[in-house]
Design a protein that fits this description.
The protein has 14 helices and 3 strands. By secondary structure, the protein is an all-alpha fold. Helix 6 (about 175-240) runs antiparallel to helix 7, helix 6 (about 175-240) packs parallel to helix 8 and helix 9 runs antiparallel to helix 12 (about 390-425). It holds the Pfam family CRAL_TRIO_2.
Length: about 525
Amino acid sequence: MAEAGSPRCMMWCRRNATSFPGNLHLVMVLRPTGFFQRTFTDIGFRFSQEDFLLKLPVVMLSSVSELLKYIDEKQLTPEFGGTLEYCHSEWVIFRTAIESFALTVKETAQMLQSFGMELAETQLPDETYSIERILALRTEKYYQLKEDITAVTKEGKMLLCSLEEPDMEDLEEDKQQERSSDWETVHRLLTQLHEMETAFDGFWEKHQLKMEQYLQLWKFEQNFQELSKALEFLTTQQRELLDTGENLSQVRQRLSELDNLEQTAQDLTAKTHIVILHGHQMAASHHYALNLICQQCNELRHHSDILLEEIKRKHNRLQQTSDLLTSLQQALECCDEGVYLLANQPLDKCQSREGAQKALQDIEKFLESSSLHLNIDPQALSSNFHLILTPELKARVQMVQIKLENVRSMFENQQTCFRKLADKQVRPVQLVAPRPECPARSKSPLFSPKHGNVHLSLIVQKYSRVGRRNRIVGEGCCMGENSLSGLCWRAPMTSLHHLFISILQTCLCPILKRIPQKQ
C-alpha cells in the first residue's frame, strides 16, 4: 500500500516490486486529495501502468474508506484511519540493531573461516623455536577471536532481551507478531553464532593438539638423533678397544679405559631410557605418529642394549685375562722367592743337625705359605680360561709350568738332602789303648806305615770320585735353568762333600791311631 503523493512514490513501488516479488501480491494506491497531485498521479500511472502491471496488480483508491474495504482498521495506523499504534523511530532502531547484529555475525563467520584456512594452509617450520612461536601467536589470535565471539554473543543476547520486554502482553496482536518475527531472527542469528563457535572450538582443539604433538615429535626426533649419534660414537670406541693384552699392565690399562667407557655408556643409557619413556607416553596419548615413535624407541633400546652387552663381554674377558696373568705373575714371583731362599741359605750352618733342621723348617714354611701359587695346575688354568687363551697366553702358561716343575724339583732335592743331614746319627768314638811297637815285619802289611798312607789316599780318592760323579749328574740335571737354579745344586753337593769327610774321619780314626808314629 502506498500513498500516491509524487512520482517518488511510483519509484518506491517499482523498487519494492523488483526487490520483493515474492512478498508483494497487491499494490493499493491511495490518491491524494489535492487537484494537482491527483492530476500528476493519473498522468504518471497512465504512462507507466503497463510496465508496472507486468509485475504487480495495482488498485487505485480514492479515499481511506475504500482502503478499509481491503484492510482491517486494526492493521492500519491512525494516519490511514486505523487503530494500530506504530512508532517509526522505534522500528528503525530495532531494525538497524537487527541488521547490524546480522552483519556482525556474518563478519565473525568470515573471520573464523579465514583463520581456519590460515591454520590449514600454513606449513610448519623445522625448528623448535619457530614452532613454539607460531603456536603462541595462533593461540593468542584464537583467544582474541573468542573474545570477539563473546562480545557479539553478548550483543545478541541484549537485543534478544529487548525484544522480550515484559509489556509485550499489553501490545496489540500485530505488533506482537512483528516483535516475534524480530525475536526469531535474532535468536536464529545467535544459534548460528553458537554453532560457529562450537565448530571453531572443536577445530582449534584438534589443531592445537596436532601442533603440540608435532612439537613433541620434533623434540623427540631431535633427542633421538642426538642419542643415536652418541651411541654410535661409543660403539666405535668400544670396537677400537681390544679385549686382550700382552702383559698385565696393558690389560689393567684397557680395563680402566673400559670402565670409563662403561660409565659413559651407563649415563647415556639413562638418558635413553628417559627418551624411551617419553616416547611411550606419547604413544599412549594416541599420537598421530605412533608407528614412527615406537620404531625409534625400539632402535634406541636395541642399540643401547648391544653396547652394554659388548662392553660387559669385553670387561669379563679382560678381567679373566687379568686374573690369569696375575696368577702367572704370582707364580713366577713365588718361584723367584723360592730360588732366592735356596740360594741364600748359609751352608756352614746347615752342616750341623740343628742347622739342617732349621733350613728344612724354613723350606717347609715357605712351601706352606706359597702352596697356592706353587701348586697351581696348568691344565686347570687352561680349562678355566680356555675362552680367552691366545697363542701368546698359552706359551706363557707353558713357560710358567716348566719353571714351576723345576722349582718344585729343586725344593724336593734340597729337602731330601737336609732330611739326611737332620737324620744323621753321630757315632761315639771308641778309645783304644795304644799297643807296643810292632816288630819290623808285621803279619798285616796292610796297616804298616808303609801302606797306611796309600790306603787312606785310596779311600779319599774313591769318595772324591763318587762326589764328583754325583756333582756332574746334578749339574747335568740343572742344565738349561737360570743361574739361580745352579746355586741350589751347589749347596747339596758341598754338604755331601762334608758328609763324606765326616764319614772318613769317623771310620778311619781308630785305624789311624793304631799306626805307630815315627820316632
